[in-house]
Amino acid sequence: PLALGLYTVNAVYGDTITMPCRLEVPDGLMFGKWKYEMPNGSPVFIAFRSSTKKNVQYDDVPDYKDRLSLSENYTLSIKNARISDEKRFVCMLVTEDDVSEEPTIVKVFKQPSQPEILHQADFLETEKLQMLGECVARESYPEGNVTWYKNGKVLQPVEEVVVINLQKIVDKSTGLFTMTSSLQYMPTKEDANAKFSCIVTYYGPSGQKTIQSEPVVFDVHYPTEKVTIQVLPQRSTIKEGDNITLKCSGNGNPPPQEFLFYIPGETEGIRSSDTYVMTDVRRNATGEYKCSLTDKSMMDSTTITVHYLDLQLTPSGEVTKQIGEALPVSCTISSSRNATVFWIKDNTRMQTSPSFSSLQYQDAGNYICETTLQEVEGLKKRKTLKLIVEGKPQIKMTKKTNTNKMSKTIVCHVEGFPKPAVQWTVTGSGSIINKAKETKYVNGKFSSKIVIAPEENVTLTCIAENQLERTVTSLNVSAISIPEYDEPEDRNDDNSEKVNDQAKLIVGIVVGLLLAALVAGVVYWLYVKKSKTASKHVDKDLGNIEENKKLEENNHKSET
Q1: Which of 43, 50, 175, 386 could form a disulfide with 83 if both were Cys (CB 3.0 to 4.6 A apart)?
Q2: Is the dihedral of CA 514, 518, 523, 528 positive or negative?
Q3: Cβ within 8 Å of residue 124, ≥6 positions away
Q4: What is the tens place of the pLDDT at every residue in 154-185?
Q5: What does the UniProt entry say about where the protein is found (predicted)?
Q6: Taking the chain, what is the end-to-end CA distance rounded to the nearest angstrom?
Q7: Which residue segments constitute the domains of the chain, with CATH numbers given?
Q8: Element at 551 (helix H, strand E)
C-alpha cells in the first residue's frame, strides 16, 4: 500500500513490523543502512550491515534496543510494534560512487477492547432526563467512534430527550486512546424492556471494523394509571364456606404496595396491602367490592355473589311410628338459585317424594332428601330420616294335608315389628315344638311352618311375641285318618283380590236371576187379570147364564 505515493507497511500493535528494502542491490555495494526521520527532518540511524564483512551493527537507540533485526537482503524487522513506531523509515544502499535511498511509511493499528456500559442507572423514570450510563472502549489506535443503539436502532441526539457526549483520552505512555460516550435519556413506558447497547467503530490494517457491547435492560419507573381488582382463586362461582382473596393491583412500576378496600356495609375504606382475605364467607357477603389507591384515586370494582343452599327435613333423624298411622314428610329448600331435589330410600333413588297416609311395614327404611346446585361446584346438602314402623304381632294359622296323605302342614303367618319370636305348643300337653321352619322376614312378615302326622285330633297353638304384645292363636287339627277341609296357606294380595272379584261375580248373577223371575211373575199376573175382565164382558153381552157359570168355573180352575 502507498501513502502519499510512498510505500506503507500496516502493522498490528504488539506484532513484528517487517520492512523490505525496496532497492535493487547494486554492484560494488559496500554496506546498507536503515534510519528514520525525526519530526524536524533530522535522521536517526538504527542499523548497519556490511556487504563484505557480513557483520550487523545496531545503533544505540533506546526505543529500539533489542527490537531490531536486519537480514542479508537488508529487510528490517522491528519486534513488538508500538505506536511510536509510526515513522518514515529509509533504506540506504551505499557504493563508492553512489548512495541509494527508498523510504517506507509505518502505520500501527490497535483494536479497542469490547465496549462496556458503565455507571449504569439503577432505574429510569419517565418524563425525566437522566444519565443512563457510559460506554467505554479502551486502548484503541487510531481513535475510534462510539454510537448508541436502542433495540438495534441508532439513537440520534434529540434535545432534552437524547443527549450524547463523547470524550477521547490518549495514554501518553502508550499513545493508545480510550473513548468514553455518555448517554442522557428520557424514557417512556415503552422502554420498560428496551435493550440498550453501544458500538465502537475503529480502523484496522484491513479497514473499518466494529465491536458491540453486551445489551443492557433498565427498570423503567412510571406512575400508576389504572387500578384493577380481582377475586382469587379465580372460579366461576363462590359458595358459603369458601375462602376468597381480593387482590388490587396498579399498572405502575413499581406497583403500589397499599390500597383502600371498600367492603359492602362499610362506609370507610380499609387500608391494606395489595390483598384482602375473607375466610368462611356467608351469604351476607354478597355485594359490590371496590379498591382504590390510598389517595382514593383510580378506583375499580367487582361484584361477588355467595351462593347458598339450605335444606329442612321434617321430621328427621330416627322416627318410630305405629302401623296404620299417618306421617306427613316435608323437605323444604332455600337457595340462591334453582336447586335440584331428589329422594333416596335404602340407597335406591325414588321416583316421587314419600307420603304416608297409612304406614305399612314396607315403608320403614332410611330416607335421604338430597339437593344440589348444579351450577355451583361442591354445593350439596342432604338430611336423613330413619323411619321405624312398629306393630303388635298379628297371627293367622292355616292347615293343609300334604299330597302324600301321610302328613299335614300347619303354618303360622305372623306380622309385626320388631320381629316377633314364635313358639308352637300342643294344647293339653303344653310341650314346645322345636322343629318349626321360618321363612325370611320381609316387610314385617314371615311364616313359621311345622309338619305333623297326628294319630288323633290335636290342638296346636302359635304364640308370637315382641316388645309390644304377646299374641296367641290356636287351631284344631284332625287325625290324619279323618278327612277334613284343608285350608289353603296364606294367599298374596293379588289372589285375594281375584277371589273377591269371583265372589262379587257370583252374587251379581244370583241377584240378576231373582230379578228376572220377579219380573216374569208380575207379567203373568197382569195377563191373567186382563183375561178375566174380558170374559165378564162376554157374559153380559150373550146373557148365557150357563156359559157364564162354565166360564167362572174355568176361571176358578185357572186361578187355582
Answers
A1: 175
A2: positive
A3: 130, 132, 185, 187, 191, 218, 219, 220, 221
A4: 999 999 999 999 999 999 999 999 999 999 99
A5: Cell membrane; Cell projection, Axon; Cell projection, Dendrite
A6: 177
A7: 8-109 (2.60.40.10), 116-221 (2.60.40.10), 227-307 (2.60.40.10), 309-389 (2.60.40.10), 392-477 (2.60.40.10)
A8: helix 545-559
